[in-house]
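so my prof wants the structure for this chain in the tokens format not the other one, which i didnt know existed until like an hour ago. anyway here's the sequence
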Amino acid sequence: MKIAICASEVVPFAKTGGLADVAGALPLELEKAGEDVIITLPKYKAIQDSKFKIKRVNEDISYSVIGKDIKVYFIENDKYYNRDNLYMDKKGDYPDNLERFSYYCKRTLELLKEINFKADIIHLHDWQASLIPVYLKTLYSGDLFFKDTKTVITIHNIGYQGIFPKEEFPKLGLSWDIFNMEMLEFYGKINLLKGGIVFSDFITTVSPTYSKEIQTKEFGFGLEGILSQRKDRLSGILNGLDYSIWNPETDKFIAKNFSARNIEDKYKNKKDLQEICHLPLKDDVPVIGIVSRLAEQKGFDILAEAIDKICQLDLQLVILGTGELKYHVLLEKIVKKYPRVISLSLKFDDVLAHKIYAGVDIFLMPSKYEPCGLGQLISLRYATIPIVFKTGGLADTVNSDNGFVFERYNKEDLVKTIKKAIQAFKNKGKWTILMQNAMQCNFSWQESAAKYIALYEKAIKG
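here's what i got, hopefully its the right format
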């Protein structure tokens, strides 16, 4: 199959979140499976020629190569993309984002024709690429070049939809006929993600449970109705984990490499982490780790309510991340109150993140909603036992065999589950079995790619 992956950010070129990881990792697995893959994304200021060995196609298109031979085509337009950030500055979203990403979508379709890449599948991601299927089924509906092309959209987080004022609609170059409740109109505004959902042949999201959750009022952010209408075309495919980066056997950042065969070496990483974090060197006390954005969505509302009680339990706590100011202030106060219990690093630190995943006994991820989640997948790989709230990808990957799950989102159930985990930690035999189970979990991209290929084949068959 010929597959074009279209995303507004792709590792290693441009990244603000998990979308970039997926858009960079999935094509590599598709190529390994024998598929013919290309990628398109805007050429942002940060994508420097010297760093990525970029070659020119014409005056506004260049490319680099990842994998064996995956061409990553950059769509150039200095007016739109020569900026310090991808989507926003300190004042907020760029006011011309509608024009920036509609240009990217149109230029992508023209590019496919210019390089004669007759895609069987265009796999687009999130609202920034959502106009591609809209344009295909309107402006390009009579174009024979695209007559056999099918589209798949992946929703990474339905909270981000690309909503713009109605007055900007003429900038899209589309007929007003499609500005209606069934298509691009959303409470009197333009909704690009809605357009992608309505016009794509198939819709996926990043975990099976999240695909069901977004059909409900609680998690659908206003799009639950349209998703329920298309539920026969909607599925959830769990994101994979890049085991070449997250592997305790080869991880260069951790104090001692280990595997399921010498799992006891994990405790050398625990000691190393306690030393770095200036915590007492106790091996009979569980260390709980958090690597997260400090935000309500990530569970910090109930964590904030429970933090005093948690710090009085027989444990140590290591927190790494940045986020909302109110949580920074609260946690800094708690550190002063319990300096020998909690270590706080309000920053992004990749090396420390690796050390936390390898060194803690328990990984805490109480997210209110989590489309897929990466933290729990990494922690399982490092024999670190996750505690999660039963939602989205967390519900699909953590169970009583490899972790602890609480089902009611409140501080009482959070504390109760932490106590349960501490109790289990004290039974070394059972805890070792839990660690072994965790390490045997396989969330490789190979598994996920196979599911995407099956979906592409289904789309082509119609």
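also thought this was worth mentioning. Residues 2-240+446-461 form a domain with the Rossmann fold fold (CATH 3.40.50.2000).
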